[in-house]
Design a protein that fits this description.
Blueprint: H1 22-26, H2 30-41, H3 45-59, E1 64-74, H4 103-115, E2 120-125, H5 132-147, E3 151-155, H6 163-170, E4 174-176, H7 183-189, H8 195-207, E5 211-213, E6 216-218, H9 224-235, E7 243-248, H10 256-261, H11 269-282, E8 287-290, H12 299-307, E9 312-314, H13 327-337, E10 340-341
Parallel strand pairs: 1-2, 1-9, 1-10, 2-3, 3-4, 4-5, 6-7, 7-8, 8-9
Helix pairs in contact: 2-9, 3-11, 4-5, 5-6, 9-11, 11-12
The structure holds S-adenosylmethionine (SAM), 6-(5-methyl-2-OXO-imidazolidin-4-yl)-hexanoic acid and iron/sulfur cluster (SF4).
S-adenosylmethionine (SAM) binds next to loops.
Length: 342
C-alpha cells in the first residue's frame, strides 16, 4: 500500500460538484476510493502508525498539540433526534433545557480558557439551526471572544443562506459541523435531517470564507467500511476541512445509542487509533482532533492517538454536557510525553 499524501490519489464520491476540480470528477470511482481507504484500515497496526507518523512529521510539528476549549452556550431542549445526543428534548437524560448564556458569562469563561492555555474557544448550541433572533446574541459573543485574542469557533447546527457571512463578519474563524458517519449509516442514527443538509451547510461555511471543522463519531455500531466511508467524505472535500474532530462515542443513559449498546464499547481502542491514523494519512494538512471520549480512555491510548497524528484536543473539564479530563491531568500527560501546546 503506497503512502497516500496527496488528495488526488483518493477519488471523489457523492459530495457537491463545487468541491471537485475537473480531473477529480472525470476520474471518479467511488468504490475504489473507499477501498483504498479501507486498505489503510487493514494494514498491520505498526505499518499504519508508521505511515501516519511519516505523513504527520512531513506536515506538522510532531510534539505540538492545539488546545480548544468548549462551552455550551445553549444547552438541551433540541428538536433533533441524533441517537447519541443527551441534548435532544425527546430523550430522557439528565440534561435539562436551559436559556442561552449571557454575554458576560461567555466572555468570562473564554478569558479563563485563555489563561489556562487554550488558543481556540468553541461555542456550541443545541439547535437544529439558529433563527435570526438566536444568531444576533451569538454574533456579539464571537466579536467579544475574538477581541480577547482567541480563535473563535461555533457549532450551531444547520445554517441558512447569509448566516455564515454574518458569522464571518463578526470574526468567526471556524465553524464545526460534523458529518458524524458514512452516508449509509446516517439514517440509523439521525432521521430529522439528512446527509445532504450537512453537506449544504458545510458548503455555505466554506463559501463565506470560514474555516471548516468537520469530523465524526466512532463506536456507534458502524462497520469499518462505514468508518472508511466517513473518512472518504471528509478527505474528498476540496479543500479538505482545516480541522477534523474524531469523537469516541460517549454513551449517555437515556439516549438510543446507550440503549442499543448498553454501555458496552462498540469498538476496540485499536480501531479508534486506526481511525485517527487514517484521517491523518488522508488529510495531511488538517488538524486532527482527538475529541470526545478522552475521559474514558487511558493515557496509553491517548498517547497512541498522538503518535497516529492527532494534534488537537478539547481542553477543559467539560465538553458540552459531559466530562473531559481535568486540565491538571492533561498538563501532566503532556509533560510525560514532551508535548507542548500551539
Ligand atoms: N446542534 C449542533 C449540531 O448538531 O450540529 C451543534 C452541537 S452538537 C452537540 C455537535 C457535535 O457533538 C455533534 O455533531 C456530534 O458529532 C458531537 N456529539 C454529540 N453528542 C456526542 C456524544 N455523546 N459522543 C460523542 N460526540 C457527540
Ligand atoms: C465535536 O466534534 N465534538 C464536540 C464539539 N465538536 C462540539 C462535542 C462533543 C460532545 C460530547 C457530548 C456532550 O458533552 O454533550
Ligand atoms: Fe441537537 Fe446537535 Fe444534539 Fe443533534 S447533536 S440533538 S442537533 S444538539
Amino acid at each position: 500500500m503506497p503512502v497516500i499524501t496527496e488528495r488526488k490519489s483518493i477519488q471523489s464520491i457523492s459530495v457537491p460538484a463545487s468541491w471537485h476540480d475537473a480531473t477529480d470528477s472525470a476520474a471518479a470511482s467511488p468504490l475504489l476510493a473507499i477501498d483504498a481507504i479501507e486498505a489503510l484500515f487493514n494494514l498491520p497496526f505498526a505499518d499504519l502508525i508508521h505511515q501516519a507518523q511519516t505523513v504527520h512529521r512531513a506536515n506538522h510539528d510532531a510534539n505540538k498539540v492545539q488546545l480548544s476549549t468548549l462551552l455550551s452556550i445553549k444547552t438541551g431542549g433540541c428538536s433533533e433526534d441524533c441517537g447519541y445526543c443527551p441534548q435532544a428534548a425527546r430523550y430522557h437524560t439528565e440534561v435539562e433545557s436551559e436559556e442561552m448564556l449571557d454575554l458576560a458569562t461567555v466572555v468570562a469563561t473564554a478569558k479563563l480558557a485563555k489563561e489556562n492555555g487554550a488558543s481556540r474557544f468553541c461555542m456550541g448550541a443545541a439547535w437544529r439551526g439558529p433563527k435570526q433572533r438566536d444568531l444576533d446574541p451569538v454574533l456579539d459573543m464571537v466579536r467579544e471572544v475574538k477581541a480577547l485574542g482567541l480563535e473563535t469557533c461555533c457549532t450551531l447546527g444547520m445554517l441558512k443562506d447569509g448566516q455564515a457571512e454574518q458569522l464571518k463578519n463578526a470574526g468567526l474563524d471556524y465553524y464545526n459541523h460534523n458529518l458524524d458517519t458514512a452516508p449509509e449509516f446516517y439514517g440509523e442514527v439521525i432521521t430529522t435531517r439528512d446527509y445532504q443538509d450537512r453537506l449544504d451547510t458545510l458548503d455555505r461555511v466554506r463559501g463565506a470564507g470560514v474555516n471548516v471543522c468537520s469530523g465524526g463519531i466512532v463506536g456507534m455500531g458502524e462497520s469499518q467500511r462505514e468508518r472508511a466511508g466517513l473518512i472518504a467524505q471528509l478527505a474528498n472535500m476540496n479543500p479538505q476541512p482545516q480541522s477534523v474532530p474524531i469523537n469516541y462515542l460517549v454513551q449517555v443513559e437515556g439516549t438510543p445509542l446507550h440503549d442499543k449498546l448498553g454501555g458496552e464499547k462498540a469498538i476496540d481502542w485499536t480501531d479508534f487509533v486506526r481511525t485517527i491514523a487514517v484521517a491523518r494519512i488522508t488529510m495531511p494538512a488538517s488538524f486532527v482532533r482527538l475529541s470526545a471520549g478522552r475521559q474514558e480512555m487511558n493515557e496509553a491510548t491517548q498517547a497512541m492517538c498522538f503518535l497516529a497524528g492527532a494534534n488537537s484536543i478539547f481542553y477543559g473539564e467539560k465538553l458540552l454536557t459531559t466530562g473531559n479530563p481535568d486540565v491538571t491531568r492533561d498538563k501532566a500527560l503532556f509533560a510525560k510525553l514532551g508535548i507542548t501546546s500551539l
